[in-house]
C-alpha cells in the first residue's frame, strides 16, 4: 500500500513500534521473617518504576524473583510474549548465581538498572529502610557474574524518578528493540552483489550468528512477473499519492511513471511475501536481466521512507545498518561519501539516486523528477530529489572484520546549510564532522569504515554505542 501522505512541508520519521520491555525484579526469601510483607512492598516499588517509565516503553512487570525457578518462569514468559528486552532491577540484594544461569540462556537484550526506592539516605532510616534500598550490592554481584560469563549488557545508574534516568532507559530500550529486530531480519537481495566491491562482502553465516540478519536472494525474474500481475488500481493509487506529496516533473511520461510505480509495488509485495524488512538491488543485476526498462530509484526512496532498510549494489551490511537506524530513531537513510569540500570542512553525501525523503529540508519541495542516468544502460529512472535537512546528524558504518568479528564505525556532526548544486539530480547534502573533516576521515579509514553507511538526523552516537554493548560488536567512534 502507498505511504500515508505527510504534510507538504513536514517529513516526520516513520512510526516504529514502541519497545516492549520486561521488568525483572530480584530479591530473596532471606528477609521475609525480618520484615513481614517485604515482597509485596518491593513489588509495589517495581510497579512504580514501570509507571514512571511508561512514556518510553510498554512494560510487563514480572512478580518478584526470589530464586532460580522464579527467574526461569518469568524469563520464559517474557520470551513467549515476544518482548524486546529485559530490565533487571534489584529489589533487595539477590545472589547472582540464582539469576546468571537464566540470563546466560536468554536471547533478549539486558540492562541492569542500578537504582533504589529512595534517592537519598535519611536520618530516620532503620534496618528496614537499609534492606529496601540495598540493591547496589546485588547489582555489583550480578554484574560481576555476567562479566565473568561473557554476557553483553548495559548498565544504567541513577535516581529512577529523575528525567535523565528515563532518557537513558529510552536509549537502551530503543537499542534493545533494534537488536531484537535484527535477530529476526531478512534482507532481500535482488540478483547479485556488485562484483569487486570488497567492503560490502560478508560471511552470511557469521552475520546471522552475531547480529541475526538472514540473506534471502530474490531472482529478478520474480520481480518482473510480480510487476506484470499488479492490479491497475494499485498503480493508479500510488501515482495519485505521489501527486499529492511530491512536486512531480511535468516531463515524466505516463509510461515512465507507471513502470516506476509497478517496480515499487512489485518490490514491496515480494518483500512482504518473503518477510524481508530490508533489501538491496544492484544496477547490473537489473540492467543485465534484459526485461526491465529502468532502475528502481524512486522506489528505494519511498520504501526507505516507509521503514524498510535499503542499500545499493547488494550491500547486506549497509541495508542491515539502515534498518537498525530506523529502529533506533525512525529515519534511517542510505548514503555514501562522494567528495570532500575542504573550504567548508565537509564531505558531500549522496548516492546514485536513492535516499529517505523524510530527512529532506522542510523549506523546499521534495521533487519526483525525470532524470537521465547512464549507469545500468537503461531508460531514465524517475528519481526523488531533495537536499538533506541542515542540523545534527550521525553516520554509522557496519564493518565485517572476518569470522565473527564486526565493528561499527560512528561519527557525529552536522549537515550544513551549503549552497545548492543545481546540476546534481539525486538526494544530497554536505556533512561536517564534529572533529573536522581531516581528523574524521583519517580515523574512519584507519578503522576500516565502509563507503556505504546509514545516516540518522540528530546526535545518535550513544544510541549506536548501546546497540554495540548489547551485541558484542566493537564500537569505534571517530
UniProtKB/TrEMBL annotation:
Ranges where the L-arabinose isomerase central domain occurs? 191-325
Q: Does the keyword Transferase apply?
A: no
EC assignment: the record states 5.3.1.4
Supply one GO molecular-function term. Answer: L-arabinose isomerase activity
Which keywords label this protein? Arabinose catabolism, Carbohydrate metabolism, Isomerase, Manganese, Metal-binding
Task: Kindly list the biological process annotations in GO that this record carries.
Answer: L-arabinose catabolic process to D-xylulose 5-phosphate
UniProt domain L-arabinose isomerase N-terminal: residue ranges: 84-181
* Positions of the L-arabinose isomerase C-terminal domain: 332-474
Q: Which Gene3D superfamilies match?
A: 3.40.50.10940
Any one Pfam family here would be: AraA_central
Cellular component terms, GO, for this chain's entry? Answer: cytosol
- Protein name, as recorded: L-arabinose isomerase
Q: Which organism is it from?
A: Nocardiopsis algeriensis
Taxonomy, top ranks, is: Bacteria, Bacillati, Actinomycetota, Actinomycetes, Streptosporangiales
Amino acid at each position: 500500500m502507498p505511504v500515508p501522505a505527510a504534510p507538504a512541508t513536514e517529513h516526520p520519521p516513520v512510526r516504529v513500534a514502541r519497545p516492549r520491555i520486561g521488568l525483572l525484579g530480584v530479591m530473596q526469601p532471606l528477609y521475609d521473617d525480618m520484615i513481614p510483607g517485604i515482597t509485596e512492598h518491593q513489588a509495589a516499588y517495581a510497579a512504580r518504576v514501570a509507571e514512571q517509565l511508561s512514556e518510553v516503553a510498554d512494560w510487563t512487570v514480572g512478580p518478584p524473583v526470589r530464586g532460580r525457578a522464579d527467574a526461569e518462569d518469568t524469563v520464559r514468559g517474557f520470551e513467549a510474549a515476544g518482548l524486546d528486552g529485559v530490565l533487571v532491577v534489584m529489589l533487595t540484594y539477590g545472589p547472582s548465581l540464582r539469576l546468571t544461569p537464566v540470563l546466560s540462556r536468554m536471547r533478549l537484550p539486558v540492562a541492569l538498572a542500578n537504582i533504589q526506592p529512595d534517592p537519598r539516605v535519611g536520618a530516620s532510616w532503620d534496618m528496614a529502610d537499609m534492606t529496601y534500598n540495598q540493591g547496589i550490592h546485588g547489582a555489583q554481584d550480578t554484574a560481576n557474574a555476567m562479566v565473568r560469563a561473557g554476557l553483553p549488557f548495559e548498565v544504567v545508574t541513577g535516581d529512577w524518578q529523575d528525567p535523565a534516568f528515563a532518557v537513558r532507559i529510552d536509549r537502551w530500550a530503543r537499542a534493545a528493540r533494534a537488536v531484537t529486530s535484527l535477530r529476526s531480519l531478512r534482507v532481500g537481495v535482488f540478483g547479485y552483489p556488485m562484483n569487486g566491491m570488497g567492503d560490502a562482502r560478508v560471511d552470511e553465516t557469521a552475520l546471522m550468528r552475531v547480529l541475526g540478519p538472514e540473506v534471502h536472494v530474490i531472482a529478478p525474474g520474480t520481480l518482473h512477473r510480480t510487476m506484470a500481475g499488479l492490479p491497475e488500481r494499485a498503480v493508479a493509487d500510488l501515482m495519485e499519492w505521489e501527486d499529492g506529496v511530491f512536486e512531480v516533473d511535468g516531463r515524466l511520461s505516463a509510461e515512465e511513471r507507471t513502470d516506476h510505480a509497478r517496480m515499487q509495488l512489485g518490490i514491496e509485495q515480494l518483500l512482504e511475501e518473503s518477510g524481508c524488512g530490508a533489501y538491496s538491488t544492484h544496477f547490473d543485476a537489473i540492467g543485465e536481466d534484459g526485461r526491465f526498462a529502468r532502475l528502481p530509484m524512486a522506489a528505494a526512496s519511498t520504501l526507505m521512507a516507509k521503514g524498510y532498510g535499503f542499500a545499493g549494489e547488494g550491500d547486506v551490511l549497509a541495508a542491515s545498518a539502515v534498518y537498525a537506524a530506523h529502529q533506533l530513531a525512525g529515519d534511517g537513510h542510505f548514503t555514501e561519501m562522494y567528495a570532500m569540500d575542504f573550504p567548508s570542512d565537509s564531505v558531500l553525501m549522496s548516492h546514485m539516486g536513492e535516499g529517505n525523503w523524510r530527512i529532506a529540508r522542510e523549506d523546499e519541495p521534495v521533487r519526483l523528477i525525470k532524470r537521465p542516468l547512464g549507469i545500468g544502460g537503461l531508460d531514465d529512472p524517475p528519481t526523488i530529489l531533495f537536499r538533506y535537512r541542515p542540523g545534527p546528524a550521525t553516520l554509522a558504518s557496519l564493518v565485517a572484520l572476518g569470522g565473527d568479528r564486526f565493528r561499527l564505525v560512528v561519527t557525529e556532526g552536522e549537515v550544513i546549510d551549503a549552497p545548492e548544486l543545481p546540476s546534481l539530480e539525486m538526494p544530497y547534502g554536505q556533512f561536517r564532522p564534529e572533529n573536522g573533516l581531516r581528523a574524521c576521515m583519517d580515523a574512519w579509514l584507519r578503522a576500516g569504515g565502509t563507503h556505504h553507511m546509514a545516516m540518522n538526523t540528530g546526535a545518535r552516537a550513544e544510541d549506536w554505542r548501546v546497540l554495540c554493548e548489547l551485541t558484542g560488536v566493537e564500537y569505534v567512534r571517530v
